[in-house]
Amino acid sequence: MRIFSVAALLLACTLLITLPSPSAPSPSPTQACHSLKFPHNQAYATCNDLLRLNSYLYWNYYPVNQTADIAFRKPKTPTSNWIAWALNPGGQMMAGSQALVAYQDPNGNMVAYTTPVSGSPTMKPGNLSFGVSNLRGEYSGGEMIIYATLQLDSTLLSTNHVWQEGPMRGGSPRMHDLSEDNMLSFGTLNFASGTVTSSSSTGGGISSKALLKNVHGILNAIGWGILMPIGAILARYLKVFKSVKLFNSVHPAWYDLHRACQIIAFCLGVAGWGIGIKLGSVSRGINFSKHKNIGIALLVMAAVQVSALIRKPNPNHKYRIYWTIYHHSLGYAIIVLSILNIFQGFKITNGHNYWKRTYAGIIIALGAVALLLEIFTWLVVIRRKKFEATNTQEIGANGGHEVNDASTNV
């Protein structure tokens, strides 16, 4: 049997925010941003509809002193969320970005501050690499707005910008969703020329990374989360059919099916794990330690489990009982951890409920099949034992009569 495994490249986890604004030429008047009014009738020469997260960016650029008045507005934002916008000359991602963040505190007051995002997305207040003044936040009619004046330099006139939205918990901004919109909320802007590009017009570089994220999830769900449980079910419930074999194999059918299923599951799981490690290495500043640690533990446990097939004691060996206990215990532990980690993955990505419900349905179906097979197996075993007991009694009875007859004859 040949096992083909899948290898992986990268997924850049784009997180936060970036600040922006070109000046003179204004975008096409067909953009929705032109029809929106500000609560205090502020006026901006340039605006742009940001195609992700239903956001808008406005700015006035002053070439004399290289400053820009900007407004980042996010309609339909609940008061339980934060919004952010940032500049990142180093790339279209969170790490290295210079962000403006705003949210509403429990007392209804708007909080706005700057945060340089480095190795860890803590979003704690801090000074940026460029000057920021007149920074404030506003919430009106379900819309959250960040206002600021930026002191730019030649390296920031044309640069990357990122924007984000996420939940507040315990009075602090928490990790945003990893949905497609959140992952593609970036672009480039030129304050001087007024030109803006969005992720949808940058060649789809991130979409390939998002595809890798999906491949990572699919491989792990199929390998660890589906084939592993199926392999265990085959081993437990096909043993009652001891005489059934595949293709004249020396082993019973359940053994060959169980081994094939687990080896394929292991290969898929290793491929998915490799993609996950690569994605983690390119997602600087983002660390899902629980999900990662469970994944590492699963790989180690599965490697030990597979290697156990190589050094397996003979059925009559005195230590075989201990090997069996270890093999079964480790196998069930792997299955439980696999299912937990897959749901942890759904939680991290805030994946579509369709996929989460689909996987939950598969697990429930496998559980129902296992329950039915458990009942059926016990019925077969009980019936077989009764049949063997009846035969033993009949043989004993017949043997006794033959002995008595023989004695009489003597």
Automatic annotation (TrEMBL):
Transmembrane segments: 217-238, 259-281, 293-310, 322-346, 358-381
Signal sequence bounds: 1-25
Domain of life according to the entry: Eukaryota
Record-level Gene Ontology MF annotations: metal ion binding
First-listed, main subcellular location of the protein, grouped into a coarse class: membrane
Cofactor remark: Binds 2 heme b groups non-covalently.
GO cellular component: membrane
Name under which the protein is recorded: Cytochrome b561 and DOMON domain-containing protein
Organism name: Turnera subulata
